[in-house]
Amino acid sequence: MRSTRESLLKNAQEFVAEQVRKDFQILAAYLCGSVLEEEYLLGGTTDIDLFFVRLDEPVVKREARRLTDEVHLDIAHLDQKEFRQARQLRVHPWLGPALKDARVLYDPQHFMDFTVAGVRGQFTRADHTHARASQPADSARRILSDLREYQPQPDPDNLLRYLRAVAHTANAIAVLSGPPLTERRFLLRFPPRAAAVGRPGLYRGLLGLLGASRLEREWLSGWIGDWQAACEAVNGGQKASTTPLPARRHTLKLQ
Predict the structure, then answer these.
(1) Are residues 168 and 84 in the same domain?
(2) Alpha-carbon distance 125 to 123, whole Å?
(3) 3 state DSSP class of 15
(4) Helix (H) or strand (E) holding 196
(5) pTM above 0.90, yes or no
(6) Which residue, of 74, 101, 120, is where some domain finishes?
(7) CA 172 to CA 254: how far, in whole Å?
(8) Which residue pairs, CB below 8 angstroms and at least 24 apart, start in 139-143?
(9) What are the start-end ranges of the E strands in 67-197?
(10) Residue 199 lies in a domain
(11) Confidence at 2, pLDDT banded by 50, 70, 90
């Protein structure tokens, strides 16, 4: 059965209500991401991005909860200390855009009212936009500089470092006209972001950095089995990724 936006929002609200009844360290909770957007489904699947602001330092900072094969909750736990300087959050490349467009689900002390107001004020000012874009750009430069200097072996860890550098580079462009791009929709949403800054050719450049010119279409079918095996390995307790893959195995499927 196709999930509607109303049912997804209801699921999120019910989950938050359940959590705050048993965890008194939750100060506030808010929702952001694709479920608030017009195209909230991708291939019939989606995730619900929830953020819990806590009074204590979170033991678990990221987790996923399965709702159905097509929908899961992607939950981040944040220390309230990260929100002390509300106006500074407007230049944070991730928290800033998320808070700007957030839907608050729980805020009995009006903590989020103050925070969101501080972020939204002058959010689009040119120097604030530049500051948000500069941070992923600087991160990409540091990674690439390190890879060039030390020329490490092409193992999985260093491949992941390279891919992070590519993602930071692309997001330095993306945040000039919107929120940063996330994994599932990265290549789908980068072209309009590149076009928004008058550089549509950057999309082909991004594909080149990912080796797309050497990719054979039939290879993808063979990779799906390996990818599923990796998810099962994580589910079995083996360390293969920092991403909560078991709960996301269906919603991360190749489209």
Answers:
(1) no
(2) 6
(3) helix
(4) helix 186-196
(5) no
(6) 120
(7) 25
(8) 139/164, 139/165, 139/168, 140/165, 140/166, 140/168, 140/169, 140/172, 143/168
(9) 71-79, 103-106
(10) yes
(11) low
Retrieve residue 88's tokens: 């500074």
- Which CATH number do you get for residue 55? 3.30.460.10
46-54/71-79 β-pairing: parallel
**Who wins on pLDDT, 43 or 185?**
185
Q: What are the distances in angstroms from CA 128 to CA 44, 89, 168?
A: 36, 10, 18
For residue 253, give every residue at least 6 positions away whose Cβ sits within 8 Å of its Cβ, in sequence order, or none: 43, 45
Domain interval for residue 165: 126-214
Average pLDDT estimate for 226-240? 66
**What was the pLDDT predicted at 217?**
77
User: What tens digit of pLDDT does each residue of 15-46 get?
Assistant: 999 999 999 999 999 999 988 988 888 888 88
Mean pLDDT of 93-109: 96
